[in-house]
Amino acid sequence: MNKKNMRILVEAGAIKKLNIVARGSCFYVEAMTPHDTHAAETGREGIRTWAKIDAAAKWVRSIGIGKATLILDQWQPAQHEISLAQTSNHSMVQENKDV
Q1: H-state helical runs in 1-99
Q2: Among 8, 22, 80, 92, which residue has the least CB neighbours within 10 Å?
Q3: What is the pLDDT of residues 2-17, one digit of tens each?
Q4: How many C-beta atoms lie closer than 10 Å to residue 6's C-beta?
Q5: How, if at all, do strands 69-75 and 49-50 pair?
């Protein structure tokens, strides 16, 4: 869900709980409505992530939320992120070597 839609749900009172979730070395935001859970998305429909907690918290405040739960059980601050493009390219190289 993009920022505009999430702000509309906040104003309508539809978001009941908001989490800032740490996974690997980055943070993302998920909002709970009565029927579903939605992650904040970029304009390209990918999940919006932040490298620092203060940036994620600033974004949460910008949509009108003043209280959020911080979930850190999967946070690995020293972990380096691997993009899906790197993973798929590596798999293709391995497959070509086997031929």
Answers
A1: 3-12, 53-62, 84-98
A2: 80
A3: 889 999 999 999 998 9
A4: 25
A5: unpaired
Whether the CB-CB separation of 40 and 3 falls below 8 Å is answered with yes
How does pLDDT run across 16-47, given as a tens digit for each residue? 899 999 998 899 999 999 889 999 998 887 89
Residues 61-96 as b/e (b if ≥16 CB within 10 A, e otherwise) read eebebeebeeeeeebeeeeeeeeeeeeeeeeeeeee
CA distances to 10, 59, 77, 85 from 54, rounded to whole Å, are 20, 9, 14, 28
65 in Cβ contact with 18 (< 8 Å)? yes
Kindly state the DSSP code that residue 81 receives in the 8-state scheme.
Answer: P
pTM, 2 dp: 0.73
